[in-house]
Fold these 2 entries.
Entry 1:
Amino acid sequence: MYPSKFDYVRAQSVEEAVERTSSHSNAKLLAGGHSLIPALKLRLAQPDLLVDLGRIAALKGISRHNGTVSVGALTTHATCAASDDLPKVWSEAAGLIGDPQVRNRGTVGGNIAHADPASDLPTVLIALGAQIHVQGTAGSRAIPADEFFVDLFTTSLEEGEIITRVEVPAESNQGSAYTKVFNPASRYAILGVAAQVAIAGGVCRQLRVAAGGSTPKAIRAHHVEAALQGQPLNDTTIQHAAAAIAEDLGEEVIGDMYASAAYRRSIAAQIAARALSAAAARAR
Amino acid sequence: MTQALVGTSVKRKEDPRFIQGRGKYVANLQLPEMAYIAVKRSPYAHARIEAIDTRAAEAMAGVLAIFTGQELIDSGVGKLPCGWVVPGCKVPTRWPVVPVGDKVRHVGDSVAVVVATSPYIAEDAVEAIEVSYTPFAAVTDAKRAMQPGQPVLHDDIPNNLSYTWALGDRPTIEQALSASAHVIKLDLTNQRLIPNAMEPRAAVAQWNAATEEMTLWTTSQNPHPIRLLLSAFTLGIPEHKLRVISPDVGGGFGSKIFHYPEEIITPWVARKINRPVKWVASRSESFVTDSHGRDHVTHAELGLDAEGHITALLVETWADHGAYLSTFAPLIPTAFYHCLLSGLYKIPLIYGITYATLTNTVPVDAYRGAGRPEAAYVVERLIDLAARKLDLDPIAFRRHNFIQPEEFPYQTPVAMLYDSGDYNRLFDKAQELSSYSELVAAREAARAQGRLVGIGVSGCIEASGPAPSKVAGALGSAVGFWESSIVRVHPSGKVSVLTGSHTHGQGHETAFAQIVADQLGVPMEDIEVIHGDTAAIPFGMGTYGSRSMAVGGSAIVKSAEKVRKKMLKIAAHQLEAAEEDLTYDFNGGGVYVKGSPSQKKSFFDLSLGAYTAHNLPDGLEPGLEEQAFYDPANFTFPNSAHICQVEIDRATGEVSVQKYYAVDDVGNVINPMLVDGQIVGGIAQGIGQALWEYGAYDESGQLLSGTFMDYAMPRADVMPAIHTARTVTPSPHNPLGVKGAGEMGTIAATVAVAHAVMDALAPLGIRHLDMPFTAEKVWSAIQEAA
Ligand SMILES: Cc1cc2nc3c(=O)[nH]c(=O)nc-3n(C[C@H](O)[C@H](O)[C@H](O)COP(=O)(O)OP(=O)(O)OC[C@H]3O[C@@H](n4cnc5c(N)ncnc54)[C@H](O)[C@@H]3O)c2cc1C
């Protein structure tokens, strides 16, 4: 469990980090290290240079203005879990990540850049319609969450691009919730469902639902949304809509020693129903 | 006797150093000029090594040497021995490093050894070694391994059958079963577990070329037996030239009892290159090299008469020993298993047989409980099913079959002579602690709402503190089961206690000091417990089998008694009184004239006096140090009643343990806090086995759960609050009246949780599932039942 040889630099600014990584053929950014360092130790990753983002203050913290919440890429899950500014679905999911050590070290940027299919944040960000702000040699851009996640461990980040922050709309009258089935060993998600909903005139409005943990990348649950949008929210309508998640998950469902694909597919409707019910209960 | 520190929750003497990060573990040791070892391991479960190309690795800067198995063999290193050979046992041979031309037999088998100036370089060089293999088909299932046509691991062991061990008369038992009113039949598995001590194994060795002495620091539960094995069988350095030190050790659970290749390789290399050498296992190596636990496949039958009394028990087990016999492997599914099959019950007739097979997996040996949890699981599953069959409350049915208090000592039909117990009182306490009838009522109410709530009961017995040595020898042991101690009173009246048992989390430094404090009437601060160093302690058998207090603690009492006797002699001489007229002062130490406490020789005076020797009785040797070797007359038999409640999430199959009550009878208690720690930690391990842990292999012999991302350890946040209580029936045959406390939690909790899960599923008509009760397994059973 000793990594192969690498150099290390501590970047003082985003610009320096961009410059260091883009000018080097085999560099990797280091944030909380909770995915990268295990990969180094198992020699699954063998970069020549680590560019540590850890001291860049500009990348840390949560701020809210004009109906938008901005979360710095280096913000830890523990900070997100304790935040009242974030939509409930995010703080709730953050509180269910790993264990206290993982939440104290793991960061928002590292989590989504790694794009582990079992992660919780991609699901949440897709449900919230997040914008992922990145900076590279060619300048800055914002990538919608739906387009950011491409496949297993694959994102639409270009070489040398660094995630700087993630923006989501602040929650006002909506209610949101995250429901997770844990892998008992890793504590990652076997299945996670994120839901956000507003209720107006007694019916469901602005429903956004996403699922992750069971598919190569988190997915938006369009079928569930369509089945419930404009409907009154009760057990019957929720159960009915939740059943549509099977179609959203599609054919490519993952299986492992703790949870086969068939099992994940079968329990998904109940997990979705729980997320929807909890979100509805929180909506005002 | 007073000064009762014994029986109180004295805080642990060892905690300040651990909490402050000042523990001294093998991996912390840094010596000048130290070199580092990394081991090249087989990625195949079964293959012949055709060639090993080390050229690229040898050329790397910082690589000092690379050794293969042949070089070790050529220099006289011996095969790893088995320390417990049952009659007819075929012992598969095993070199510390597999030589070219021989076969690797499990993923993780060692193939070559790199020595380098840093652990990083050593790891780089391991990657650069090229090994060519001819792979063979593998077998990973205990029962299938015996069948014709399966891959054979060792040419001289046909059908992969190392031995068969049986106890009892099969025809008699079969006849009794067929004459029984009811027969409960069950096929079950007790899945393979991976111990995962928090500290990985490690070894550091230093060779002194001038004196030709070797010092080995190793993560062992028993440094003296390891030294003996190294001297007599493997490394070949004689005992008087070999010092083995086992310093602070971060957990063992059995996995650090055994003799492992790396503790042979490390000193061998240190002598070869004449530099200190260090090896520390990575977590990945721990998974594929530390001996695993359990792994039984069992068929069992329990007979009942028309009144619900047990008539007979038959147990057939296939025990997987892995690729080689680990040090004590054959003890576990034989004497430690079948001899416990009577449980808490009067079972007139018992027959048991074990087929011990070899597979392409990591060797299996003792893991917390070692045979006894497997036995308890079989007996208790049958008892639970029997109660269900007769439609009786599980506790009522147990009571109906208990061995009664007046029947002790109780001779079981499976060799064990139970020392003492009162199982009715035990269960009275458990029912009271758990408010059992309210639990049952709440379960009924939950069931009426369609919830899957279950209550699990376990009643377990354990044989702890293996004994006596004579019997162990007759059963196949290469070692004795006594323990040694020295109580050394220094001239200043401070006390060193030397013990041959070893603490790696249990808290001996505290508990043993409490005993001596009471025995000698001196303050705790004046006592230091020393262990784990063959140069300091005469000999010792180490710690396993919940033996330290019953055997090691008893040895300490014996030494302390001798010290008091000698003090009495000196005092009698100095006070010019007869010994009968004197009394030992247990509240402060020293000796005074009965009825006249002012006529006294203090502890300090007597200590100093023993060393100045100015005024000793004629013929009495100076000094104040006594030694005792205590060979126990029998095992001790702790017993327990655990009750727990689980609820199953119908939608996902997830099980949550909601309530847990544990009543244990471990005899007299030295330190309640330490016993609680042992029980509660054990319960966590037991819950882990019941719900999550599984050392799973695929057909090709790859370990599927070889990292913590796949091997599910129990976690703090999924543990219920655990309520503990005790009943006390002292063991009549050791001076402290104690019984073992180290393993019962694990034994009882696995059963209690299994029964709670089965109880929750019973309304659906589900009779038995095998552990671990993972969400998917439970969910699938629910779907099938619907
Ligand atoms: C035991 C354990 C359990 C866990 N359980 C969960 C869980 O239940 N749910 C969950 O969602 N996650 C879980 N995680 C993951 C964890 O939450 C972290 O989010 C994750 O490890 C990555 O974050 P990090 O800050 O540690 O990133 P690092 O490990 O430092 O980096 C990960 C990757 O992202 C890249 N990277 C880092 N920062 C940036 C950036 N700003 N821009 C571009 N690329 C970047 C790195 O180069 C690297 O490739 C778990 C991790 C562990 C070790």
Entry 2:
Amino acid sequence: MKYNIDDNGYYGEFGGAYIPEMLYPNVEELRQNYLKVMAEPEFQEEFKQLLQDYVGRPSPLYFAKRLSEKYNTKIYLKREDLNHTGAHKINNTIGQILMAKRLGKNRIIAETGAGQHGVATATVCALMGLECIVYMGEIDIARQAPNVARMKMLGATVIPALSGSRTLKDATNEAIRDWINNPVDTHYIIGSVVGPHPYPDMVARFQSVVSEEIQWQLKEKEGKTNPDYVIACVGGGSNAAGAYYHFLEDENVKLIAVEAAGLGIDTGESAATSVLGKEGIIHGSKTLLMQTQDGQITEPYSISAGLDYPGVGPMHAHLYKSGRAEFISITDDEAMKAGLELSELEGIIPAIESSHALAVFEKKKFEKEDILVLSLSGRGDKDLDTYIKYFEL
Amino acid sequence: MNRINKKLEENKKLFSIYFTAGYPNLDDTVPLIQNLEKAGVDMLEIGLPFSDPLADGPTIQASSTKALKNGMTSETLFEQLKDIRKSVSIPLIIMGYFNPMLQYGVEKFCAKCAEVGVDGLIIPDLPVDVYNDKYKTIFEKYGLINVFLITPQTSEKRIRFIDSISKGFIYMVSSSSVTGSQSGFGEEQIAYFNRIKEMNLKSPQIIGFGISDNLSFTQATDHAKGAIIGSAFIKYITNFGVKSVDKFVSKILKG
Ligand SMILES: Cc1ncc(COP(=O)(O)O)c(C=O)c1O
């Protein structure tokens, strides 16, 4: 366990729970129970059943023939885009809603940026008949109208975050404040491998179904469980954590983490945390984050709302610092081009987050025999507006 | 002896005020401290503004955003406070989130506090156990008191633990909420105040969050060593500026 979490809730020097005392009882209750609950056979059974019948798992591991030909290597796409609600996010919300029920909570809160996690949370709340409140930055509400409408149809209340920059980081702040104000009946479903321990570990475990499937699917197709490379985009880091999970300790499997460079690393309009960030504390976790010299958290930018976050989860901070994963940053333009390319070559319109991962093939040369698995974290429906504007379709 | 401990020994109820450094204007910090001491306030919490104040409600958030826009930084605050002990003798506590201190360097931050005459720190997002394991020796080396929070949800066992490592007072958060979201206290809160009182802790308690007028101030000080007002004071200086703070203070004390 060199790269996974230790008994104190840290990945190397990153992680922990840097939370105000007001949150201590909530977070401590979760910490004491999450592993126990997840280990219960009835929990596992219900989780697996829902992933199969409701989410549509296993998601296919698709050999992308034409893309592979173009880049002269072997590319498999892990099709999280085919999940119900259109992204990997639902793996986590299914897990957490079952957790919330086991803990006797009847009110669910969540933060969302692009609205994918908000929709995934509103969906499982509808499924379980629980009250759902989603915090979303005022600016994101304006630019992600279809997802706001979806959440409302699913019965959720969407509350605009009016503080700070009025985007994802502020929506997260508001969700945390809500949890402080409602310490007894409420569970906070965080949308990525961020936040105080045990969240990064719990979310990674729920997402680890992805690499578990990759192993047996690849065995069927290639006769071996482990690929040479796993490639994933990193916002907070949950789809990457899920795709890496069962390969973390096998150093023959190279991990590539793709961050959003926005308009370019040096433009001041970027979200490439590993390059621009420094160690510090954001949303209760010690990790890498973009900040001023004085320790104020700065505003990131990316064309992709899901990657527009000024930090990364502590697992990824550790993978970066230890050199276990290679971090590559991709600009808006490079990502958009890669998204169009996948559409044309394979008939799959990817989420712009996933397009960042796809852009790696133009940046890095792979061997012909290399077996690559790329986490296609979401589908592009939600991004149609952005694609239309960008390509003047 | 630390000024906080000396103040706690005085045979009176303590009135403490929180304000955000650099608000409403960058250079208001020092005159505010001086005026508040003159007005009869016993102790001050100087808020070091942070971009993402998780435990604060809209009033303190807004003042923090403004203070940062005004140019407030850790360095600027220490610069402003460098001669403060020539004119002010009440205890001064810096209240701020951990990340700016971490970036400044925890030891360097503590050394600066000691140098300018700050007596203690309140860091809501530095957990008690992390403090105890990693930072306690540094704080103690510079004679600083770290103040911990308890809430209505804090277990008795944890309150006893917090009491055992507290060197000054315990900051008793009046209700399960962020700052500024209450007005006046109901039965449930009074029951909580009484429950804590009956625990006979070694550390005196000062109640904060949701105190805004003479009534809530009196309710709080009936059950604890003192009371802290934050959001209500920020609202006052937002509306009336920093010159007439004595009016605010006397209204709280006398009704
Ligand atoms: C499709 C998709 N991929 C990736 C992300 C980034 O999140 P994470 O890094 O947690 O996977 C998001 C977030 O909204 C998303 O919607």
